Amino acid sequence: MRNGAIIAVIALVLLAPAFPASENTQDVSVLITGFVPFDKWEVNPSQLIAEELNGEEIGNAHIIGMVLPVDFNESFEMVKKAMHTYEPSVVIALGLDGYSRFICIEKIGVNLKREEGWQLSRIEKDGPFLYFSSIPTGDITQEIRGAGIPARQSFFAGIYACNFILYRLMDYIHEQHLNISAGFIHVPPLSSQTPYGMELRTMVEAVRIAITESMKH
Ligand code: PCA
User: Fold this and answer.
1) Active site annotation includes 106
2) What CATH class does 24-215 carry?
3) pTM score, two decimals?
4) Mean of pLDDT values over 82-107
5) Is position 162 annotated as part of the catalytic site?
6) How remote is the CA of residue 162 from the centroid of ligand 1, in Å?
7) Is 178 exposed, middle or buried (0-12, 13-18, 19+ CB in 10 A)?
8) How far is CA 191 from CA 5, 39, 188, 200, 202, in A?
9) Nearest to 90 by CA among 201, 209, 199
């Protein structure tokens, strides 16, 4: 009897990983952020994408879309709070690159920011010069292109709010040892904004692909 009980416990322990509890299949969350309009851009497509994806289910992930102010510290504080509230396994921040005609999957965040009057300073005084994003940028680029959407990997996210959020995100994840894949995607303007722009639904589709690929890692 005693031996039987021990064998049963051992069998349960060994078999458990093969039969994950069914409640575990829906509780992954993905945080997608966009920015409000800035400079001459009266509409920021990254905001519209985050709003559109908010509440959507992709695979077994629940998407949380949020919109950030174009303010260095305030934007990152909001992301940090959301990471603690929702405990996402993937965070992808989005922003507008007004001069691009591609979806740009950013690979690198640099430790530089542009202040008022084009003054340059470090984001983190003693931080590393760069961080790599931890979403699979190559696979994402390939899959988005495979869907017929113009996309490329980019190795410079600029020195403004978008690069800042990418750098701070990677720095925080690194410092806190969080198990989160994170990265940044720049989108072009909407086709209603410039002749070289892209339709909103195409951009939303590209970000869905990025989420799917990021969840595989
Ligand atoms: N694009 C800017 C900031 C906000 C946005 O959407 C950038 O590329 O830094």
Assistant:
1) yes
2) alpha beta
3) 0.88
4) 98
5) yes
6) 5
7) middle
8) 67, 18, 9, 8, 11
9) 209
